[in-house]
Amino acid sequence: MHAEDDAPGPTTPRWFRWASLAVAALAAAVRLGYLADLHATLWWRRLVVDPEYYDAWAQKIAAGDWLGAGAFYMDPLYPYLLAVLYRLAGRDLLLARLLNVACSVGGCAATMRLGRHVGGPLVGILAGLGFALYAPDVFHAGELDKTSLSMLLTAGFLALFATRRAFAAGIVLGLAVLTRANLLVFLPLGALVAARADASRARGAAAAAVFVAGCALALAPVAWRNHRVSGEWILTTTQGGQNLYTGNNPSNPYGAYGVVPFVRANPHFEEEDFRREAERRAGRALGARDVSAFWYRAALAHVMDDPAFALRALARKAALFWNDFEISDSQDQYLLERDSPTLRAPLLGFGALLPLAALGAVAGRRRRDLAADRRAVALLVGFALVYAATVVAFFVFARYRIQIVPALLPLAALGVVELATCAFRREGRRAAAALLVVGAAVALAHWRIGIFHRDHPAAVELRLRHLAAASLDEGDAERAIAALAEAVPRCAQGCPWALRDLFDAYVATGRYAEGEAYFARFVRERPEQRDAPEYLAELRARVAASSGAR
């Protein structure tokens, strides 16, 4: 372990301090540039799905409803933090996003500290630079959701735990759990690692106890609040069983989120719909904890009833987790690239990060000349693998996966150092081994899986339909029709929804003649499309009716 890792001291190079400030400033500048891009678009004021839910929840809390009703269904830390901001400064979407930027910069600083512990100052700076330029984190700084806060807390937990600050690491892990409940798995695992990290059993046991105490201190207020309002002892949230069933049910072979047939795809209704269906099947009223347990059992029953289906879905989820594609949830990163020069810049993506991290994981354990802390490398690899398993067990979203990035970045920095060492020393066999690891990870990360690719016609069509719907809601019919006209040729036969949306847009805006001209041309060029003639006939009838009315 490096002596300078426990506290800044005379062994910390002066250049590291200045370089750290420069990297943190870069992280802030990139995210502020993205916010400037976003401010000029409809997406600044249009909050979609989860951001809209968190914004409404924060406003309700800020208005005085601090306890609320019922045990928490969704992770509560971010909306409460947002509510404090709203209470102090009023509802301000700029300040809310600046809060995200502050969290991102803090996450960048924590990742630098973690990287310095893992491999020294250079690795720390490279890890921080990767965080500063990581495109998905830049994107999430513009979303009113918990991702930026969760990244800060995850990076902080790893940095504190790696440097054996057990109590502080426990507190930060507890707070991180209140942004991503699956992180709770690291409470028992962290205690076990802390207990075994010291040669003295007594000191190891004390470290484990202190770590658990810190985590319990952070979680206790939430458990107390849940009991106070519901009468049930619930440690964090009641969403676990529902999420497990969402990712493991007969209607979802995809690996990502799939709409459960009886659940409305909106967080305002999800809890109620799951509860109602559970009570219908059980034939009795159920408490919040019982509802979650019911869906845990239903998911496991599905796995036991059709293990082949479940294994195929599990394999697909595992592949998607390590894939370069960012699976959208509330908002689509690739859609917002259309309006953001910052996001279109050559920033770092998961597909570039993973191969370097894989190389760093191998080299950090085997190459003594890298001066890496092998225990810390093992810690980060273990965290990455366990965290991946907790997501794959449920279903994969980009904002569920991103918490692995603070662990991968120091490993990726070691990978960069390893490649530079191979080139500088001209060690052919070592370079060949490095390229083999990188090549295998590149193949894994860039393997095309169904529609989960940024340029797949169905994915592009869905993205453009979302843009069109938002543009119509904002009164921008021109952009809506242009977006749908762009989507249709990509997937005219295989995914006809854009064509239907385009017809609806022409009708809703009264552009019957323009629509008639478009569909007449489309029918001539695409006679195999079965729906278009019906749309053309309807538009011709409307043109005739409007002409007769005049």
Give the strand content: under 5%
Alpha-carbon Rg, integer: 26 Å
Biggest β-sheet strands, sense, barrel:
none
Shape: globular
Order of helices and strands: HHHHHHHHHHHHHHHHHHHHHHHHHH
User: In total, how many beta strands?
Assistant: 0
Question: What proportion of the residues is helical, as a percent range?
Answer: 55-70%
Structurally, the number of domains stands at 2
Describe the fold and architecture.
- The structure is a single chain.
- This protein is mostly helical and 550 residues long.
- It folds into 2 domains: 3-232 and 329-445, no CATH class; 459-549, Alpha Horseshoe (Serine Threonine Protein Phosphatase 5, Tetratricopeptide repeat).
- The protein has 26 helices and no strands.
- The protein has helices spanning 14-39, 50-62, 77-89, 93-119, 121-132, 135-140, 147-162, 166-177, 186-196, 201-230, 240-247, 267-282, 288-305, 307-321, 333-336, 341-344, 350-366, 374-392, 398-401, 405-425, 428-445, 457-473, 477-487, 497-508, 512-525, 532-549.
- Helix 2 (50-62) packs across helix 3 (77-89) and helix 5 (121-132) crosses helix 20 (405-425).
